[in-house]
Design brief:
Number of domains: 1
Oligomer: single chain
Strand content: under 5%
Structural class: mainly alpha
Radius of gyration: 17 Å
Number of helices: 8
Largest sheet: none
Order of helices and strands: HHHHHHHH
Amino acid sequence: MGLNEAGELLVQQIRQTSVLEWIAVVFGVSQVLLARKNNIWLYPTGIISVICSVILFFQSRLYAETLLQGYYLLMSIYGWANWGNGSVSSASQITLSKKQEKWITWGIALLGWGLLYLVLDKFTDSDVPILDAFVSSTAWAGMWLLAKRKLENWIWLNVSNLVAIPLLLYKQLFLFSILTLILFVVAIFGYLDWKKTLNASDE
């Protein structure tokens, strides 16, 4: 397929994108931009994106992604409350993960990957159980760290994004793949911004 044909196909797919997917994408971009700015409004915008995404991913048989969105919803509520109360676990400050938190993060990612894969493989008609489970479990880890305002959340979220991009393309969710690419780039700058803020607070 030539470059022009690929471009025409992309334009065609974008034109065929549902209103629900547009809403999910727009609010998803808003969420990560607000997260980069360390702004609590990332959570209400993220909740809107999550609700739309649940419907779309379920229709595409991305069941782990659907569960992931449910987890996003819970973590958004938790994070919103946590960020809104600066006295809770130093929620108002960006910090590095402690040793125990690192172990918990790896546990969420690895155990989540294994459990999700088994569920998808045995109990669903998913045709991409390994990748679907990996994207979700690493994002679970990242969202847990984001809710606690840990710098490393950006690393885990981008590991998830890196695998999600080709997976979404395979599922012909082109707008979501573009969104994830945007999130990948923004997350890099988010990490740098948060690290700068963290370094400044240590001075």
